[in-house]
Amino acid sequence: YGAKIRAPHALVMTFLFKSGSLKEKLKSIAQATYAHSRNLAYFVFTYKGLLAAQSRLQGKKIPFHSFLAACVGGWLVFGDNNPINSQIVMYLLSRILFALARLAVDKGYIPQPRQDPFPLLAALVWGTVLWLFEHHRETLQPSLQSSMTYLYEDSEVWHDLSDFLVYNKRTDPK
């Protein structure tokens, strides 16, 4: 599963944003794919093993077991702050926030919104990320910085249609 998810992403991101020879790019793609796949496999093994151990020790499954097993697995497997783990954790965080908001409504902790809150969320997210990019760029993840630099700065220099189709890193001859 990790290879299925990471390989296409690494392929696109590498050819869009990384420089180097074809061999270096392919090696980078293979390393990212391997790291993602390995970490997911280690995590699943750790999580399932800890779930089984807790269930066996207590004689039954308890909902807290999944939280504890995942915390330990997350610490051991994804606790190293590197680009692969960072992306996976951020991916999960965004989905968790949505799920917790839905759960809070389902449980009655917050009222059902009268209108869809997504447009407001989209506005706040985009407003915040562009403000950070313009004024505190160093706080953003490097891959997000690269994407935003490409979209909002490199796009100001055009040579021909290839700039639209291929990563635009040529300098303007002015």
Describe the structure.
This is PXMP4 protein. One of its GO terms (cellular component) is peroxisomal membrane. This protein has 174 residues and is mainly alpha-helical. The protein has 3 domains: 1-79; 86-112; 115-169, no CATH class. Helix content is 72%, strand content 0%. The protein has 7 helices and no strands. Helix 1 (2-17) runs antiparallel to helix 2 (22-58) and helix 2 runs antiparallel to helix 3. The protein is flat.
Helix and strand run: HHHHHHH
Distance between the termini: 48 Å
Assembly of the depicted chains: single chain
Beta-strand percentage? under 5%
Overall form: flat
Helix content: over 70%
Could you say which structural class the secondary elements and strand pairing correspond to?
mainly alpha
- Number of structurally distinct domains: 3
* Strand segment count: 0
**Tally the helices: what do you get?**
7
Poorly predicted runs of 5 or more residues: none
Organism: Pomatostomus ruficeps (Chestnut-crowned babbler)
Protein name: PXMP4 protein
InterPro entries: Pmp4
Pfam family, one: Tim17
